[in-house]
Amino acid sequence: xxxxxxxxxxxxxxxxxxxxxxxxxxxxxxxxxxxxxxxxxxxxxxxxxxxxxxxxxxxxxxxxxxxxxxxxxxxxxxxxxxxxxxxxxxxxxxxxxxxxxxxxxxxxxxxxxxxxxxxxxxxxxxxxxxxxxxxxxxxxxxxxxxxxxxxxxxxxxxxxxxxxxxxxxxxxxxxxxxxxxxxxxxxxxxxxxxxxxxxxxxxxxxxxxxxxxxxxxxxxxxxxxxxxxxxxxxxxxxxxxxxxxxxxxxxxxxxxxxxxxxxxxxxxxxxxxxxxxxxxxxxxxxxxxxxxxxxxxxxxxxxx
Amino acid sequence: xxxxxxxxxxxxxxxxxxxxxxxxxxxxxxxxxxxxxxxxxxxxxxxxxxxxxxxxxxxxxxxxxxxxxxxxxxxxxxxxxxxxxxxxxxxxxxxxxxxxxxxxxxxxxxxxxxxxxxxxxxxxxxxxxxxxxxxxxxxxxxxxxxxxxxxxxxxxxxxxxxxxxxxxxxxxxxxxxxxxxxxxxxxxxxxxxxxxxxxxxxxxxxxxxxxxxxxxxxxxxxxxxxxxxxxxxxxxxxxxxxxxxxxxxxxxxxxxxxxxxxxxxxxxxxxxxxxxxxxxxxxxxxxxxxxxxxxxxxxxxxxx
Amino acid sequence: xxxxxxxxxxxxxxxxxxxxxxxxxxxxxxxxxxxxxxxxxxxxxxxxxxxxxxxxxxxxxxxxxxxxxxxxxxxxxxxxxxxxxxxxxxxxxxxxxxxxxxxxxxxxxxxxxxxxxxxxxxxxxxxxxxxxxxxxxxxxxxxxxxxxxxxxxxxxxxxxxxxxxxxxxxxxxxxxxxxxxxxxxxxxxxxxxxxxxxxxxxxxxxxxxxxxxxxxxxxxxxxxxxxxxxxxxxxxxxxxxxxxxxxxxxxxxxxxxxxxxxxxxxxxxxxxxxxxxxxxxxxxxxxxxxxxxxxxxxxxxxxx
Amino acid sequence: xxxxxxxxxxxxxxxxxxxxxxxxxxxxxxxxxxxxxxxxxxxxxxxxxxxxxxxxxxxxxxxxxxxxxxxxxxxxxxxxxxxxxxxxxxxxxxxxxxxxxxxxxxxxxxxxxxxxxxxxxxxxxxxxxxxxxxxxxxxxxxxxxxxxxxxxxxxxxxxxxxxxxxxxxxxxxxxxxxxxxxxxxxxxxxxxxxxxxxxxxxxxxxxxxxxxxxxxxxxxxxxxxxxxxxxxxxxxxxxxxxxxxxxxxxxxxxxxxxxxxxxxxxxxxxxxxxxxxxxxxxxxxxxxxxxxxxxxxxxxxxxx
Lengths: 304, 304, 304, 304
Hints:
4 copies of one chain form a homotetramer. By secondary structure, chain A is an alpha+beta fold. The first copy, chain A, has a single domain, classed as Beta-lactamase (3-Layer(aba) Sandwich), CATH 3.40.710. Chain A has helices spanning 3-13, 28-31, 65-77, 96-102, 113-126, 130-142, 151-159, 162-173, 181-191, 198-205, 224-237, 243-249, 286-299, and strands at 39-44, 49-53, 59-60, 195-196, 213-214, 219-220, 254-256, 261-266, 270-275. In chain A, strands 2-1-9-8-7 form a 5-stranded antiparallel sheet, with helices on both faces. In chain A, strands 3-4 form a two-stranded antiparallel sheet. The two termini of chain A are 18 Å apart. The relative contact order of chain A is 0.19. Chain A binds chain B through residues 86-92, 94-95, 99, 102-103, 108-109, 224-225, 227-229, 231-233, 235-237, 241-245, 247-249, 251, 253, 267, 297, 300, 302-304, and chain B through 86-92, 94-95, 99, 102-103, 108-109, 224-225, 227-229, 231-233, 235-237, 241-245, 247-249, 251, 253, 267, 297, 300, 302-304. Chains A, B, C, D: Substrate binds at residues 63, 113, 157, 164, 188, 240, 258. Chains A, B, C, D: Pfam families: Glutaminase. Chains A, B, C, D: This is Glutaminase. Chains A, B, C, D: InterPro entries: Beta-lactam/transpept-like, Glutaminase.
């Protein structure tokens, strides 16, 4: 399929589209991004590449990293992982804390903050140098040995992160955090600080479009069954409490971040990444979601 | 693919499987079913048929009907439907009532009881003879003009249904029920009372495996886009608060009922139905879910 | 103490007080009341009487009746009553339904709607002619044999009362309603429909200011211990989720109704009733609360 | 009234009483207390003293301290205090976190942990040496210049206190904590670490039995109006989610601590303290509550 041509069609349909919402504002590094930025990159699992706009510009991938830490933890402890974190959608946002209490410290899924903190705790427990090893893992996925944490972003996150401190202390109280709180938080803030371009992002996630094996390098990063399951978790939980809306309108497993990035996957076909900093009320990129909705309508291809 | 052979493989793997849970017990018609019943039927969208066990025996499809009433309401009022009901998963069960209050009477999705009642209200509003017209619609989908409501089951449901009366009164209070409460409840109990075999069930839902068009009769029941969206809603919301688990393990959009039936769809390939009355704690067929999990593992085909 | 003089002092302090809020509007009988009405009556347990304003005008006492039905049920089944309803404050209003679910159908206290419905269920269970016998009981308390239900108000309540139907159905589902739902609701609407003047109201509640025994007629309506306990329940639960505020500012056990009435008691001293139809956000009379706050400040007498 | 004689009567009635529950076990200092300890002391506001059992033995007063920190903060910033903390009962315990979220970080009352932390934050903000000045205040109330913090208990609390860290971080996130989290927590753990005897406890709280003025020394610690209001807050919120039960059975404003102590007040009459380490399910002293229930029944004196 000629995706470049489809990109053109979609952009034509978006003519007159009025972007809404604002970039995340809780740290300067996100607040000060030019809100008109817009980039798209698509890579097929046969290594065809298509892009538009600011697809070569780096942005903070934020929560999108949580898929990669999940993959790493899943490889390490297999299905035992699910004793400490669930795979169910989270319902409404105001429930996060009560559900943690009600469920005795077991977060609903690995992508809400509480769940991502548990995943970090697993990695801190099983890795000798979690920060270093995680970075190396992401580098190997992306084929880019120069990827780095952004310490400025990590520091900003840390300075404002009372909510995450609240969550991790509650889970520690309920017995689902095994390591030192500050160590786990530090790791968490670092992994969310990575910056990538749309191009790098699709390359990094391509293995999930082909059952865990990178078809370009032929390296297997995850078993086929686990790869499908990570996609399933993204489908159900990848967009905060807007997972239903994204499934309904876009129809692809994916993950968003408050930096305005979204990565999505059509299994056996492609991985696509979009970036546009303005967020809707649920914290997902407004324009990014619109673009993907029109894109899957135009291609008439989704998982459904 | 030779699905019959795969059925055999799966059954072999289930050798030694110990069924657990009990059939639903709140009405005699469900309580008195032989809990050892087990049937499977698969139909491809090229009309190949495969089955095992009690696939020709009728059982109460219960909530599985809610997909069909959704389809009918969606055809009638298009995207306006989503002003009155959401497409997000419901979170934990104990939240149902508080979420209704918090969301001002808008149910999270069309498959929780509150949502299905709103769908019934829509049909009562827009159809002249809702019960008759809905039955005719199901008959046309199934190609079986003899399908009937089971009045015995409908009566039993009505006699025990204080919870549904509580829900519909709350929504009436909040302005999201427009018709007479008793009329809507009567319609609701009837539509949940339909009985089908696994064979009939797959035939009825086959159009959702081919973008809304029945490839055998060439009749279009739903637009391609709406058909995909119904599948998306099933994926996210079809299994009460076990949607994540089903997605994770089975990886197909589907819908379960407390009669022990499950229908699931692999878009562009097939529709499968299983029936086994013992339910797990979340109200889904234990053995049915296990069978489907092994089945999609064996075929290595899912939407992910 | 010369309460009449204190009334004058308080009114002087309220000079310039700007009443706020609106009368209850969900039924015409409450909506159409003149919002500027204001009456006060105080009776000591030595039968001294003091009043100001519209103290001889009848108004709908609404939830204030719930104290009287509680008294009657408590006499009938003693401490067994507390197996079916609690004595704890209700917390925030949006919790009512979830707490009922969480607590398995046991309402937090007899004054929230759910609790008052359970009390009605108790009376329907133990009385031959609940409506008649309850009315006679209220007549005997008030010394006024002409008190009547107001059928017009009862009918209006019934026509709008989907929320109460929701609550009672939920409790029926959870096993805490033993009688026919419509019978209990009919009784409930009637008992809330009684109209009294401030004067009649204080006379009716006077027995709670003297340990259950009417010191004027010397008739004992309730044991001393039970009378104190009813006061305790009023103190903790008599003002919806504003019980703390009322205790804090007024410092007397009392009960309010959405008709704008408040009755309050200083044990061993007096019973006071105020009436002013404008309600604050919590559903209690704005001006009535202000008057009582200044009144207990001026007298320097409260239970604390 | 001869309270010593009444003590004897009550003990006679408790003959055969089987104590239940266990001492708090989350820190060694509470866990290792002899669970059979039992002491009572009553002081009238005319300085008559009555006691039984282990009334001269020190125990950890724990949350009872929260009344004293409230008094100190209330003196410092008057009614402005209630912008940062409410006066309403807290409902069920599992709500604590969700209510904090829902109410934007404003705790329901000053006695739940979240509220007590806000009170500490107020004191840290307005005092130069909060720990020293608070201790001096308690010493002046008690007339005992040798009272000390117990650093061993404070350290134990700190080591296990992830739940409090969770609460304070959540409130910091929501803007209701103004000082450094560790400073506030350190102050909080210290103030809960004070040890007193029943005798010392009643002496310390006696001013609340006489409108804020110690009638023995004639020193005024709090205005009459504020003193009544502190009693009102104790009445509504002093026993976690068992405030209704305590009001209902005992009928006095009071405050309990997980060390097994309870202090209660009959305004214009006396202050009483009981100590017995076994706690019921709600965290209040089982035997202490029973004793007080029988005591107020026997005296036929309560605020109701």
